[in-house]
């Protein structure tokens, strides 16, 4: 009698080591839906990989309120290393309206709140407000607000080796990976980030 054949103990791939990192099960689906299910699972896996740390709090899309009477505050011509110069020092160069400084096109501009630390190397910290202008044409190297598979993120627009767009984080810790845009990815650049601001107190 042959000892060959049959399943060997501990043979095959260890549990949880497959594409999805967990146990799988067999199900029966209509043959016509096989590709649709496969595409859904691929998109789900990309979402898990790319959006473990979101960069934008989408609950806070804020429209700037532009006053008919701008608030213009003193802008000093001298750089301040520590302390604050007195207006009596006669260093006031002009008066600056904050909205005018931050906003180029009021009709196409809005603010969003940063969530996560994927862009901290560029000074974008959690709870910062970023200024997004939808009227500007994005170019390589711009910080953009993008929609990838129905999720918002703020990243640097770049091209990969295959000339396909990719979205790059700015965090030298290595905790965040680039988001590669594949042909079947739902992708839109929602606007270009033109500035940011925060409060300390």
Automatic annotation (TrEMBL):
Domain Peptidase S24/S26A/S26B/S26C per the UniProt entry, residue ranges: 74-193
Biased segments, Basic and acidic residues type: 1-11
Xref: SUPFAM superfamilies: LexA/Signal peptidase
Protein name: DNA polymerase V
Residue ranges, annotated region (Disordered): 1-24
